[in-house]
Specification:
There is one protein chain. This protein has helices at residues 2-32, 67-72; strands spanning 41-43, 50-52, 57-59, 62-64. The radius of gyration is 30 Å and the shape is rod-shaped. It contains two helices and four strands. It has two domains: 1-34; 41-76. The protein has 77 residues and is of the alpha+beta class. The strands form two sheets. It has a two-stranded antiparallel ribbon with strand order 1-2. It binds zinc ion.
């Protein structure tokens, strides 16, 4: 009977330790994953609208929100 009680206490202790470890790990994981960096935005040199870098049109060494503005900008020609 005494041995059974020891096993139960041991299992309970193990369960408590596992809970603490899991909690610590999940806490560390939430700290280690920061918010994604903000999208790299570029300003249209014609109208001043901000567009993501991968959507911006590059012309004459400047950036535009669309091809119409790239063609319409008199300072770019
Ligand atoms: Zn524009």
């Amino acid at each position: 009977m005494g041995q059974l009680l020891r096993i139960v206490i041991l299992l309970f202790g193990l369960w408590v330790v596992l809970r603490i470890v899991r909690k610590a790990l999940s806490h560390r994981r939430s700290e280690a994953s920061p918010l994604p960096p903000p999208a790299d935005m570029l300003r249209c040199d014609y109208c001043g609208v901000f567009v993501p870098r991968d959507e911006a049109i590059e012309a004459h060494g400047k950036h535009y929100c669309n091809s119409q503005h790239a063609n319409a900008d008199p300072s770019g020609k």
